[in-house]
Amino acid sequence: MLEAAAVRAGEPSAGKQPASLAVRSVTKEYELPTGPLVVLENVSFDVSGGEFLAFVGPSGCGKSTLLRIMAGLIPPTSGEVLYNGAPLRAVNLDCAMVFQSFALLPWLTVIENVEIGLEARGLPDEERRRRANFYIDKVGLDGYEEAYPRELSGGMKQRVGFARALAVEPKVLLMDEPFSALDALTTINLREELIDLFRDPDIRISIAVLVTHTIEEAVELADRIIVLSSHPGQIVTDRRIELPRPRDRRDAAFNEIVSEIFALIT
Amino acid sequence: MPVPSPGGDNGSMTGAIAAAALFSFLRMLVAYGFALAFAIAYGVAAGRSKRAERVMIPLLDVLQSVPVLAFFPAAVYFFIALTRGGRLGVEMAAVFLIFTGQAWNMAFGVYEAVTTLPSDSTEAVRAFGLSPWRRFRRLELPAAVPKLVYNSILSWAAGWYFLVACEIISIGKSSYSLPGLGSFIQRSMEAADVGGMLAGIGALVAIVVLLDVFVWRPLTVWAEKYRFEFTAAAVGESRVWDAYRSFGIAHRAGAFWERLWRGADRPIERLERVPRDSPRGRLLHAFAIFGRTLFLLAAGAAALALALLVASFLRPPVPPEAAKIPAALFFSFCRLLVAYVISLAWTIPLALWVGENDRVARIATPIAEVAASIPATAFFPLIVFFVVRALGSVNLAAVLLVLTGMQWYILFNALAGARQVPGEMKEMTKAFGLPFRRRARLAILPAMAPSLVTGSVTGWGGGWNALILSEYVTYGHRVYEAPGIGQLLVRATVSGDTRLLVWSIVSMVAVIGLLNRFVWRRLYALASVKFRIDA
Q1: Which residue of A28, A88, B43, B113 could cross-link A81, Cys pair, CB 3.0 to 4.6 Å?
Q2: How confident is the model at residue B172 (pLDDT cuts 50, 70, 90)?
Q3: What is the mean pLDDT of residues B118-122?
Q4: Strand bridging mode A21-32 / A35-47
Q5: Which CATH architecture has domain B321-535?
Q6: What is the CATH number that goes with domain A19-94+172-265?
Q7: Minimum Cα–Cα distance from A164: chain B residue
Q8: Mean pLDDT over residues B159-172, rounded?
Q9: What secondary structure does DSSP assign to A97-164, as a single string?
């Protein structure tokens, strides 16, 4: 914790102001030989600071595409994304992303993988090491700093993915089906740890966005769920989840919401 | 004029061979350095930009399928003129020839590695804001390592194959000779000095084996670290690599390598950080555009000049001997076809056997690698001499020589294909109790098909190249000739008949182009659609 204080002292402004994201009439089309494929059609919503948002929908509803448009990784065909009121034109470096397949570089050690984003931001070597170590501890990988990804289990690889994202101290955390490549037991543990991380006073992420096809996951984690339809992807429902935390998957109210959303998708 | 024997007594011969080996090795190393730098730059550039890709990849395709040996006389003229007849010009021509035998497959390897990067990784690197330089350092270059190492082995084998041919050059009346193992062996052969020849070949084989044991096998094991698939492939092991590691040599080499790149990081990133709209940024941007335009103009002008030059040689009157070209092409094609059938006949059964049996794979793969690296060109005159003496057929000898330039490509691709057959597919056919021949027909051969087509394309490429060395062989003051396009090319070179030379090259390249377009590309499309395994 002492170490944490030192890290914070070096970054006085990190994550303190709330961020805001606005998606304005976003449409995304891909040109295919068979004609244009509309992946997203006229999607609009706002996300304000402190919110944990989840996208749920059947495969092909464009939820992962939407996440990438919000990160500035791919441009929308029409419409725009406003970040803190300004239109996004390039990759948003206030965002950090967690990937379904982890997207770790196999030739780098755990700590080198975590340092990737810090390296890009030109932090001095010493500061980089310190921050990387701090977040590796946070995700419970203390002692694995010098291991290579291939030596880790799936769950541990995704912990590295989270540490890499957290280490850049982003205002927005984007997660693209972060648990769907993992086994059921690991998933349950990691979800709980993710909630703990958000409660952690050291982590000051303002907005979290989760893409998932597991409705239970969305209901357990999110403050708000946007349900998308497929072909083309459009918003079906945008609702808040007011259940108190910690949430219990066996709770009747929990299951009611799950069934309600399930009915919307099928 | 009596040719002096390269070695008199034993002591001076050992010294002469050692010096020759050193010269040849250095020549190879210089050419390889250029080929490596070219391959990385070209492959990354073509892999990054869709627009560049559209020009660069077809161009690479052409360069790869053109038999470089055919252009050697032109290259020698050019470099010798450039250096006003100095020995340096001959050296440059030799290095250039080796380079052209080494560069293309490596460039393709880098390009493939860059374009087949997992999309999640490229997105992660963008999302975390890595600059183009960092992207190259952290993602593209490491990801290309396995392909680079694998292709380097092939490139060195190709380099040795040409080296033997390019250290002695005769064009028209002039003849140039460079000190090296190739010229040593050739001179021994011309003098029918069997002892000198065997010693030279022995030294060549020794270098090839030493390089394999101390460089390529360790590097192959090391390169495994840079694979995206998290499954362990059967790469075998290298005691030498284990030794490098336990003595800390591997670690120190790694640290040195990293330091080297870090030195480049700072100045390059400083340039990258200059804001686009500052005066310096605008200047840099303008400079970059200027450089690119200049490069494109120069490349375009060179291509145009070459086309005009070729066209001027092709203008009528057509040299009378050009009438022989169609028949010569036909003979050469038949020779290649026979060699191809022989190659398939022994490589496919071997690959099937290796695929069935891991123990055989562990033994056969390194042996095949070393065997393929030993340049058969060094043995050409011997093969010709014995085959002609025993069977009285120059034609058969030429087929055997072409075979040496073709079979290894097919073997290695067949082996790689056999390894790629998914384990579960093999288990499935076994579990249902299919006999071996049915298993091979139903599951293994179809799964190997794309690799076999790739092997065939590169094998035929190697074969066309080998033709030039195979249809005209000198041994002990006698020239053995087999009628074909290779013979015609060498004759035109020796007699200095540039018009016939250009006519021969252009017809040969045209036939190769047509074959690629109408046979191999279609087969490849068929194989990669019908027999693709989505795993």
Answers
A1: A88
A2: low
A3: 88
A4: antiparallel
A5: Orthogonal Bundle (1.10)
A6: 3.40.50.300
A7: B128
A8: 77
A9: EE-TT----TTS-HHHHHHHHHHHTT--HHHHHHHHHHHHHHTT-TT-TT--GGGS-HHHHHHHHHHH
Which DSSP string do the residues of B42-57 spell out, in sequence order?
HHHHHHH-HHHHHHHH
**How far, in Å, CA of A81 to CA of A24, rounded?**
6
Q: Do domains B10-231 and B321-535 have the same CATH topology?
A: yes
What is the secondary structure of B276-311 as a DSSP string? TTSHHHHHHHHHHHHHHHHHHHHHHHHHHHHHHHHH
Chain B residues with CB under 8 Å of A150 CB are 230
The CATH homologous superfamily of the domain defined by B10-231: MetI-like (1.10.3720.10)
**Which positions 120-179 of A are in contact with B (Cβ < 8 Å)?**
120-122, 148-150, 164, 168
The alpha carbon of B399 is separated from its chain's Cα centroid by a whole number of angstroms, namely 21
CA gap A206, A196 in Å, rounded? 15
Q: Distance from A96 to chain B by nearest Cα, in Å?
A: 7
The two structure tokens encoding residue A232: 């083309």
Q: Which two tokens stand for residue B75?
A: 């290259």
DSSP structural state of residue A35:
E
pLDDT-derived band of residue B170, with 50, 70 and 90 as boundaries? low
Inspect the interface and report whether the beta carbons of A106 and B131 lie closer than 8 Å. Answer: no
Contact A103 B120 (CB under 8 A): yes
Q: Please give the structure tokens belonging to residue B532.
A: 């693709």
pLDDT single digits (tens) B482-507: 899 989 988 888 787 888 888 888 88
Q: What pLDDT does residue B236 have?
A: 63
Q: Is the ipTM of this complex over 0.85?
A: no
Q: What is the pLDDT of residues B430-459, one digit of tens each?
A: 777 778 888 787 778 888 888 888 888 888
Q: Please check whether residue A89 touches B, CB under 8 A.
A: no
Listed by start position, the domains of chain B span 10-231, 238-273, 278-315, 321-535
Nearest to B200 by CA among B329, B23, B61, B324: B23
Boundaries of every domain in chain A:
19-94+172-265
Burial class (CB in 10 A: 0-12, 13-18, 19+), B294: exposed
A103 contacts in chain B (CB < 8 Å): 118, 120-121, 123-124
Distance from CA of A115 to the nearest CA of B (A): 10
Higher-confidence position of A63 and A4: A63
Residue A17 sits at the chain B interface (C-beta within 8 Å): no
Running DSSP on this structure, what letter comes out for residue B320? G
